[in-house]
Specification:
Number of strands: 14
Shape: globular
Number of domains: 3
CATH class of the largest domain: Alpha Beta
Helix content: 40-55%
Strand order of the largest sheet: 10-11-12-8-13-14
Radius of gyration: 29 Å
Distance between the termini: 63 Å
Strand content: 15-25%
CATH architecture of the largest domain: 3-Layer(aba) Sandwich
CATH topology of the largest domain: Rossmann fold
């Protein structure tokens, strides 16, 4: 391997380990680099052991950028980063004059940073120009072309087999009837030569043809549908949480049957804490939480502490579903790519991605009404992430997700709870739009009023320069709540904005000139907004 002499390398490993007794200032002597990645002076003097995983990641990135390397290598750099930090990192990568090589499964991040994708396959290395979406479209086109070629070759092989079989059968008949007639025997021998040539042609064709195309191995989630639990599953009233500092103030949160809720916010804002409070795993500092006694829930903890390192994969899933037979458990594990002896591997020996698959095995081994998922796609490859998305999309139960994976959130969730500056706000529509809106509000000091939110949302969903319905400029509807956590359901202006957006999407779906990718995006947004409107009407 050749490397340019004198070239400076900056590397951020996936399993970043920074000494807990040192401070960010000890590890990075460039205050400007620390500040660029959101490490304020007060935080820069704190020991690393007291900082979150996201802050550890920021310090590691600051170290890389402070060195001003010629080549930057980043291994899963977005793990544990919040949306603003990911957007900042994407911008710095685009602006950097250094060469950048990164390993990432974050599709949104790849779409906003890279210009070339290198794929490692069992057949070798392949290079594609463009970002992630272009790469997937090209891969899809190639796979479809290979399938068409495979089917064409299947038909051609069948034709050659039939030709060879007919000629061999003709030879047998001719040889049987030729007897001692030299002329007929000569004809039969010529038929035998033609048959041998046909079989040789068939063998040459078989050696040249392509193998059967197949998608990359990905786990399969076979989940039973949720039960018809009560309409209201969780209701939190006036909850707040403080540790050494307040995380969020008094807020009301309701989780209804069929809700698809994303909890988003900066690192350290209390997303995981809020999820645990709703499930009863952690008490609020103030307020009350009611949970339906008939509803069952599954909690996917991003630390995966529920997994006993001494258990095998089979034991870990079996203990979560005692009603399942050993064969049923093995079938579940096989669908999660734990085949044969792999089911006997101990948890302590598994990679992080394999442990995530075990967690999903525990989830699907039983039926639940609520899935509470905290960073469920960390450490998973793209195929497995998409398998999770497909299954959750068709599942009829209630989902509450804490995640920085905007592809996942936009595909699954229709409601967003954003934690910004200690305040909970609730939005309807694609979570990525809600994140942008929440960051805009936080940056401009916008009040948590319905009118301000609707104006920002209208600009986000209808695009710049679009005409807004007159009703969108009104203030809050009579009786609309102004406490943190009040949803849009009480404001008719929100419904009007969403209906306007549906009309725009409907026109795009009927536009024959729209590309397949544009139509897919429009269909996804159309379904998400339709669900949001249905929830608003139910309330």
């Amino acid at each position: 391997m050749w490397r340019q002499p004198g070239a400076l390398l900056g590397y951020l490993p996936q399993a970043l380990q920074l000494p807990g007794d040192l401070t960010p200032s000890d590890l990075c002597h460039d205050p400007a680099a620390l500040g660029r990645f959101g490490i304020e002076p007060a935080v820069a003097s704190m020991p690393m052991s007291s900082l979150s995983a996201g802050q550890h990641r920021r310090v590691g990135l600051a170290q890389v950028w402070a060195a001003r390397p010629d080549l930057i290598m980043l291994d899963e750099p977005t793990n544990h980063l919040d949306a603003p930090a990911m957007d900042l990192l994407a911008r710095l990568i685009r602006e950097s004059r250094a060469a950048v090589l990164l390993v990432s499964h974050d599709r949104y991040f790849l779409d906003h940073t890279v210009r070339r994708i290198i794929e490692l396959t069992p057949l070798g290395v392949r290079s594609y120009n463009g970002a992630y979406t272009a790469f997937r479209a090209r891969k899809h086109s190639e796979l479809e072309a290979e399938r068409r070629l495979y089917e064409k070759q299947e038909r051609e092989e069948d034709r050659l087999k039939q030709v060879a079989s007919r000629e061999m059968e003709w030879f047998r008949q001719a040889h049987r009837h030729a007897g001692q007639n030299d002329f007929l025997r000569a004809r039969a021998n010529k038929g035998a030569a033609r048959a041998r040539a046909s079989f040789a042609r068939l063998e040459r064709f078989r050696k040249q043809r392509i193998g059967k195309p197949r998608d990359a191995d990905a786990m399969v989630l076979r989940m039973g549908q949720a039960r018809k639990a009560g309409r209201r599953l969780i209701h939190a009233s006036g909850i707040s949480k403080s540790f050494d500092r307040p995380l969020f103030g008094e807020a009301d949160v309701a989780v209804m049957r069929g809700d698809r809720i994303a909890i988003v916010g900066p690192n350290g804002s209390g997303k995981t804490t809020l999820l645990r409070i709703l499930l009863g795993l952690e008490p609020p500092t103030s307020g009350t939480v009611w949970r339906s006694p008939s509803a069952s829930w599954f909690y996917f903890d991003q630390t995966m502490e529920q997994l006993d390192p001494s258990h095998t994969v089979l034991e870990s899933v079996s203990c979560a579903a005692s009603a399942r037979s050993p064969q049923e458990i093995r079938n579940i594990l096989g669908a999660l790519l734990f085949h044969g002896s792999a089911a006997g591997n101990r948890i302590s020996m598994l990679s992080l991605g394999e442990r995530v698959r075990v967690m999903f095995g525990r989830m699907i081994a039983r039926g639940y009404d609520i899935l509470a998922l905290d960073e469920p796609t960390n450490n998973l490859d793209v195929e497995s992430r998409e398998a999770i998305e497909r299954r959750l999309e068709s599942w009829t139960g209630t989902v509450v997700i804490v995640s920085h994976d905007r592809y996942l959130l936009d595909r699954i969730c229709t409601t967003t709870i954003s934690i910004q500056d200690g305040t909970l706000r609730t939005y309807y529509g694609p979570p990525s739009a809600s994140m942008t809106e929440a960051e805009t509000e936080a940056g401009t000091g916008a009040e948590s009023t319905t009118g301000a939110r609707v104006s920002a949302r209208a600009k986000a969903v209808l695009g710049p320069g679009a005409e807004l319905p007159r009703e969108c400029s009104r203030g809050p509807a009579k009786g609309a709540g102004d406490a943190a956590g009040t949803a849009y359901a009480a404001d008719p202006a929100d419904a009007l904005v969403l209906q306007n957006r549906l009309a725009v999407l409907s026109a795009k779906l009927s536009d024959a000139s729209a590309s397949e990718a544009e139509r897919a995006d429009a269909e996804r947004d159309f379904l998400a907004i339709s669900r949001a409107l249905s929830q608003m009407r139910r309330k």
